[in-house]
Amino acid sequence: MSATARLRWPLGLAALALVAALPLLGVEEYVLGILTLGLFFAVFAMGWDLLFGYAGEANFGATFLIGTGAYTAALLSSNGLAPPLVCVAAGAIVAVAAGALLAFPALRLSGPYFGLVTLVAVLILRQLIILFSRHTGGEIGIAVPDTLSISSAVNYEIALGAAVASGAVLLFLVRSPFGLVLQAIGQDNLKAQLLGFNVVKYKLAAFCLSAFFSGLAGALMTFYLGTASLNVFVDAAVGIQIIIAAIVGGRRTIVGPALGAIFLTVAAEYLRPLGSVSELLVAVIALLVLFFLPGGLLGLGALLRRSR
Amino acid sequence: MLAQVIVSGVLISAIYALATTGFTLLYGVSGILNLAHGTTLATAGMVAWYLGGHGVLGPGGALLAGIGAGMAVGLATFGLIVRPLQRFLKLSSTDEHVFMLVATLLWTIVLQEALALVFGDVPVSIPQLVPGVVDIIGVRTPVSSVLVAAVAWGVLALLWFYVARTRSGQRVLAASINPRGLVLCGISLGHIQRAVWALYGALAGLAGVLIAMILGVSPSGGMDLTATAFSIVVLGGLGSVGGTLIAANLIGFVETATAYLLGPSLRSLPALLILVGVLYFRPQGLFGRR
After folding, report:
1. What kind and span of H or E run contains B68?
2. A186-203 residue pLDDT tens
3. Contact predicate B271/B251, CB 8 Å
4. pLDDT for B5-46, tens place per residue?
5. From the list B92, B102, B223, which residue is nearest A290 (CB)?
6. Residue B96 · residue B85 · CB < 8 Å
7. How confident is the model at residue B267, as a pLDDT?
8. Is the CB of residue B274 less than 8 Å away from at least one CB of chain A?
9. A210 within 8 A of A47, measured Cβ to Cβ
10. Which residues of B touch A49 (CB under 8 A)?
């Protein structure tokens, strides 16, 4: 065990404590707001990484799961049916149900077919929301009357808590026997089947886990933003941003996608004055990372360590 | 009403068929799903609109410029994205597949934002080539639209002739059936692939200009076009050109009928549901081989 590996835990915890203490250190509310969004985005990216990095399935429909969670929470809350925390829990649970619903047809397929079905799921959900616009607000969205908190510091801590908890659970899972089998399936489906693993069961579980965290973060984010709208929660383009974040950060690491998501959110905010050039720039950077650092930004660290 | 649906359905289906044939041909020969397909179409449409609309070129010149733009984008996709990914990253075949999807997706965003930067992110449509309307089974149809449908089917017929009857077309067909056998016969696979990408670009370019005439295009609308093309191709069976043609007509008619009977905002919903349903029972598509 090298010195850096032994220091990883204490260093990680220290960094986490520092991040959690940001509001106390007098960081501006504006910055906290950006980081809050970045942290929710990080949960989305981590959930996506479980499916892509480990189970080897490119899910182009992350926003199907996120959107289900967000809209469930928003519908319950705007109709005055439940307090915020119950709405959030309901959002996560319904997202799992939606994930299972999507997984059943999708898991019969593989590769491009799987990707297409997940993409189509987003388009269908979008159409359904527009179709039932009397209840869902259509393209405008639903305003959520309740909030979890109006303090930006508390909201920041909630997002951080969600991100850290999701990250911890996912990291634990991927290092457990479950995660190893999932990885084996992702790398060679046929051999994993020959070893007697029930591939469908494992993939279904991965799908539901990914859906749970996506739905949870989607519901929390709805309360943070105060609305559930199509262009934020049920948009294929947002799903693509998640993919970019995961690739830039470094797939198959869980931590990498989270860092990538925060990095991209912050970068997008500060590049905003550049207009559409900023998105062009981000896409080019992501492409360069894909070509030259297939391991992402986290892969860079490993590369430097090896060269030393 | 029925006549209206039939006439519009034939027109839309013809364009869909032309716009997706290149996509499926590309998959058949090189095994690549080009997610930048819709944006390639949009680029061709925007270039033709810009050059034609600003009086630089006449309608014919604009059409040629659009085809040229499509070829340029096709070859750039091949040279900048696909080739480097296959050459420099030593990936397993599953990884390569997924990386290819992600890379072409990122390439889409690059193209899309570049288009928005140059032309502005607004929907544009190319004015009709020829004025006048004709009466087809009681439906007043612009002559220009009839022309577009005729061109689309004409080009598809030419493509069939190329693949089935010419030497170079037979090589392309061989490359899609057994690339290794082709190499053993002393034919360079690299040359064939470059030729197929150029052919793909030209088809996409023409289709893009036609789409810009009938439906209009915009930089950010490219993604929707990709989704439609993807659905059609998968419904027909990946790599099966005949299946693609049938699926294009099926989706074209279902979309048109929905737009007329239920309202334009629901246009794509039934087609998407059909797609998911078909994939559930026939994962390889209607006419795909396992």
Report:
1. helix B59-76
2. 888 889 999 999 988 999
3. yes
4. 888 899 999 999 999 999 988 988 888 889 999 999 999 999
5. B102
6. yes
7. 80
8. no
9. yes
10. none
Question: Does A290 touch chain B if contact means CB atoms closer than 8 Å?
Answer: yes
Chain A residue closest in CA terms to B288: A113
- Full DSSP string of B160-211: HHHHHHSHHHHHHHHHHH-HHHHHHTT--HHHHHHHHHHHHHHHHHHHHHHH
Q: What is the DSSP letter of B220?
A: G
> pTM for the complete prediction?
0.87
Could A237 and B223 be called an inter-chain contact, meaning their C-beta atoms sit closer than 8 Å?
yes
Q: Which of residues 18-37 of B touch A (CB under 8 A)?
A: 33
Structure token pair of residue B187: 């034919």
Closest to B84 (Cβ–Cβ): which among A56, A244, A291? A291
C-beta atoms surrounding A78 within 10 Å? 20
Closest by Cβ to B113, choosing from A123, A283, A286: A283
Query: In this structure, are residues B258 and B269 in contact, taking their beta carbons and an 8 Å threshold?
Result: yes
Domain boundaries, chain B: 22-219
Find the DSSP H helices in chain A: 3-20, 29-49, 62-78, 84-106, 111-131, 133-136, 152-175, 177-187, 189-194, 199-225, 230-233, 236-249, 255-271, 276-292, 296-307
What CA–CA distance (Å, rounded) separates A222 from B54? 46
Nearest chain B residue to A120 by CA: give it: B272
Smallest CA–CA distance, residue B48 to chain A, in Å, is 22
Residue in A105, A131, A279 closest to B113 by CB: A279
Contact A131 B283 (CB under 8 A): no
The shortest C-alpha distance from A280 to chain B (Å) reads 5
B98 interaction partners in chain A (CB closer than 8 Å): 52, 56, 58, 111
pLDDT at A3: 59
Ranges of each domain in chain A:
28-235
Three-state secondary-structure class, residue A227: strand
* A291 reaches B (C-beta below 8 A): yes
Residue type, A122: V
> pLDDT per position in chain A (308 positions), as tens?
455 667 778 888 888 888 888 888 888 889 999 999 999 999 999 999 999 888 888 888 899 999 999 999 999 999 988 899 999 999 999 999 999 988 877 777 777 778 888 888 998 898 899 888 888 888 888 998 888 888 889 999 999 999 999 999 999 999 999 999 999 988 888 899 999 999 889 999 999 999 999 999 999 999 999 999 988 899 888 888 898 899 888 888 899 999 999 998 998 888 888 877 888 888 888 888 888 887 888 877 777 777 66
Q: What is the DSSP string of A265-305?
A: HHHHHHHGGGTHHHHHHHHHHHHHHHHH-TTHHHHHHHHHH
ipTM: 0.83
Residue A109: list chain B partners with CB under 8 A: 279, 283
* Residue B168, token pair as written in the block: 């170079």
